[in-house]
From TrEMBL:
Domain of life, per lineage: Bacteria
Family, similarity comment: Belongs to the short-chain dehydrogenases/reductases (SDR) family.
Protein name: SDR family oxidoreductase
Domain Ketoreductase residue range list: 8-204
Cross-referenced Gene3D superfamilies: NAD(P)-binding Rossmann-like Domain
Organism of origin: Zwartia hollandica
InterPro entries: KR_dom, NAD(P)-bd_dom_sf, Peroxisomal_Beta-Oxidation, Sc_DH/Rdtase_CS, SDR_fam
Length: 304
């Protein structure tokens, strides 16, 4: 099969539905051989099964592509290694890793349980590390490879009731930058996508107030398969000079996100005291303080 990813082997985690399914299908259509990973669990994490992964793999094969299902969890080192080994043992190599697997355990911070915190960190942040780390040795040996990680504006900007998810997603952005720096010498690239899309996971977002209902209505207009073209591009050789970046994809709109840099500094030649900070430094910087915003506050225009 010809295309931008011809000859490449890709792993897409959480590919049994939604955004991951769209990415897996698009990568196969672009010529990649795909490991379709999905544990087949419910949104609450209950049950497992090969159904979703097998169905997507079957779709790819029916369309003339090559794919294999995998149901290992991203949340442990051993099972994450199994995901990458499925690619290597089946197709002989690994070129692209898309860390898309996710879950939600939304709860206001002061009521969040340790289990709700750990379950989300394990899948999103630890899972991204484990799967990426499993691929890293192969990338280093072959001196090539691409990572595409899913971050979120919940972490980049902020959101209510998602301390676990926000922390994990902002951590993924930092992890991606570190991977990009550490592995640049091996021609390995690492980038993030912050997707705006309606999927099985986002369908659990509360819609009780008028504001929440309006937000969900907007999300429902954003098709999950709109994320796939950016993932295909970032996995391709056409993006050979693109690394350490954070992109947003919302319907037909692509955004490039800024990353934290100093925006103001103040200096005191004799050194600072707490009183001097209160009287001089804080007032001097106050104009530049970031507002306490959520994603819909900062990205307040409608998608086209």
């Amino acid at each position: 099969m010809s295309g931008m990813l011809a000859g490449k082997v890709a792993v897409v985690t959480g590919a049994g539905g939604g955004i991951g399914r769209g990415i897996a299908l698009a990568m196969a259509a672009a010529g990649a051989k795909v490991v379709v990973n999905d544990i087949g669990a419910s949104l609450a994490g209950e049950g497992t099964g090969a159904g979703p992964a097998q169905q997507v793999a079957d779709e790819i094969i029916k369309a003339g592509g090559q794919a294999v299902p995998n149901t290992d969890s991203v949340a442990t080192r051993v099972t994450a290694n199994n995901i990458i080994e499925t690619a290597v043992q089946t197709f002989g190599r690994i070129d692209i890793v898309v860390n898309n697997a996710g879950n939600l355990r939304d709860r206001v911070f002061h009521k969040m349980s340790e289990e709700e915190w750990t379950q989300v960190i394990d899948v999103h942040l630890n899972g991204t590390f484990y799967v990426s780390r499993a691929a890293a040795n192969y990338y280093r040996e072959q001196e090539s490879g691409a990572f595409v990680h899913m971050t979120s504006t919940s972490g980049l900007i902020g959101n209510f009731g998602q301390a676990n998810y926000s922390a994990a997603k902002l951590g993924i952005a930092a992890l991606s930058k570190s991977i990009a720096l550490d592995m640049a010498r091996y021609h390995v690239r690492s980038n993030c996508i912050a997707p705006f899309a309606w999927s099985r996971m986002t369908s659990s977002i509360p819609a009780n107030t008028d504001e929440e209902k309006a937000r969900v209505t907007k999300l429902q207009k954003m098709e999950a398969n709109k994320i796939a073209p950016m993932a295909v591009y970032l996995g391709s050789d056409r993006a050979s000079e693109v690394t350490g970046q954070i992109f947003g994809v919302r319907a037909n709109e692509i955004m490039l996100f800024s990353q934290p840099r100093p925006i103001r500094s103040v200096h005191m030649s004799t050194g600072w005291t707490p009183e001097a900070i209160a009287e001089i430094a804080a007032p001097a910087m106050k104009h530049h303080f970031m507002a306490l915003e959520r994603s819909p506050d900062a990205i307040d225009w409608d998608p086209i």
